[in-house]
Amino acid sequence: MIFGRSERGKPPVEPVTLKILVAGGFGVGKTTLVGAVSEIRPLRTEELLTEAGRPVDDVSGVEGKHTTTVAMDFGRITLREDLVLYLFGTPGQERFWFMWDELSEGALGAVVLADTRRLEDCFAAVDYFERRSIPFVVGVNCFEGAARYPEQDVRQALDLDDGVPLLLCDARDRESVKEILIGVVQHAMARAAERRQAVTT
To answer: Which SUPFAM superfamilies match (predicted)?
Structure first.
């Protein structure tokens, strides 16, 4: 089966689609993560950083970054013939946060990417998903040269509930990203089961 078409003689399959958001601070690796696993060439809405944006785009710690997402990143993974996963990378800067409500509509869950050199940059994303009861996991993107901290220290610094999974990852590595996405789906399923249980008791 090729997405959108069926094998000869078989009726076309209308796949179930799932949506996962990828959020976090400026320069944390959202665009890289989407690109690492997408089976299609990702849709990217990146623009060059300019002098006009220098006062609001803090590049300390990510001095090599020259572009920024201004709307979203989009990627797709076909899990099986009847199941497709859509990935939406959110823009990281505060001036683009108005788009998050649109992107989060109907989302199964989210990945909040964190950089231990700039942990405070993901506070807003953690707060956003907590307030809207959207299941999320925190993926600590292990940048080269960044200090490694015990999981409990990172969890405490982010003030995470015990039930929120915290995983280490490399946003450039396909297998590492797949583990993060599996974590999101498993967490979302567990949350849904808990809600059903609460309704029946």
So the answer is: P-loop containing nucleoside triphosphate hydrolases
